[in-house]
Amino acid sequence: MKTVVEIINVKKRIGKKEVIHGISTKLFPGEVFGFLGPNGAGKTTMIRMMVGLTKVSEGQILINGHCITTDFEKAVRHVGGIIENPEMYKHLTGYENLRQYERLFPEKLPEDRVNEVIKLVGLEKRIHEKVKNYSLGMRQRLGIAQALLHKPSLLILDEPTNGLDPAGIREIRQYIRRIAKEEQMAVFVSSHLLSEMQLMCDKIGIIQNGNLIRVEKTETLIHSRTQEVFIDASPIEKVQELLNNYSCGKTDEGIIVRAEKEELPELIHQLSRHQVKVYEFTPLRKTLEDSFLQMTEEDQHVYTQNASK
């Protein structure tokens, strides 16, 4: 498959300190890529390098095959984005804002492109109202429309749902997924809302202390082969004895056992064979938040150990 973005061993040094340590990954058409990390992990620095606001110290960022460092204009013409909040002329209508922005492009856009992006973000009914009367969600959608005007191959969104209510968050998420598929562009999203990233993104990259510690499909991250299961059964002492070979934890309601997915049928058979009364046997679904916290805590532990040597 054609690569929209290729990040190759990218490093960033500020003074003598290296803050980004050899990051490499790829983004593809139609893919929503979520970029996660704790505060200070290097997310903003990476985004600023991708749009040319910060210089790359070492390595390459290629957008549609053009290097952001050596061929900036050709690379950046394929990029649209919203970094933090979109800025608009509030005394103008949404439509007038898009027409003003259209004038900035050196090449004339197709005559119907403005109407196309208005429809893409669902602003047809309100586009001729003044922006000062728009809700935050509507301004975010207008910002996305503005970023899409020149048909970019890469759309970069930094905290696109920041400050929105639950309905607005869901609305923006649905538009982002739809735009990625319909426009066949790569969407790079940075956000702190892990539950939303789980619903929005096809793939997740996790950055910690300037290192990209994991890049996986979202489904792979939350569906590991090791499964936690809640068991409510009686007599509880017998259950604990039978599960002695597994990693278990007792709660007031029952037992949580950790086992490989392939082991679960045998585990159920073992309980029934010994005439244990099983009232509940429920797999506990892992979330992106669980995976994120586990990986960043483990990596921070390793980082702290190495730093102390």
Rg (C-alpha, Å)? 24 Å
Residue share in helix: 25-40%
The main β sheet shows up as: 6 strands, mixed
Provide the spatial order of strands within the biggest beta sheet: 6-7-8-3-9-10
Please count the beta strands (DSSP E, at least 2 residues each). 14
Give the domain tally: 2
Describe the protein in words.
This protein has helices at 43-50, 72-76, 94-102, 113-120, 136-148, 166-183, 194-200, 218-222, 236-242, 264-273, 288-308; strands at residues 5-14, 17-27, 32-36, 58-63, 66-67, 79-83, 154-158, 186-190, 203-208, 211-217, 226-234, 247-250, 255-260, 277-284. It is α/β, with parallel strands linked by helices and 309 residues long. It folds into 2 domains: 5-217, Rossmann fold (3-Layer(aba) Sandwich), CATH 3.40.50.300; 225-284, 2-Layer Sandwich (Alpha-Beta Plaits), CATH 3.30.70. A hairpin with a 2-residue loop joins strand 1 and strand 2 (17-27). The protein is elongated. It starts with a strand and ends with a helix. One of its GO terms (molecular function) is ATP binding. InterPro entries: AAA+_ATPase (IPR003593), ABC_transporter-like_ATP-bd (IPR003439), ABC_transporter-like_CS (IPR017871), P-loop_NTPase (IPR027417). Belongs to the ABC transporter superfamily.
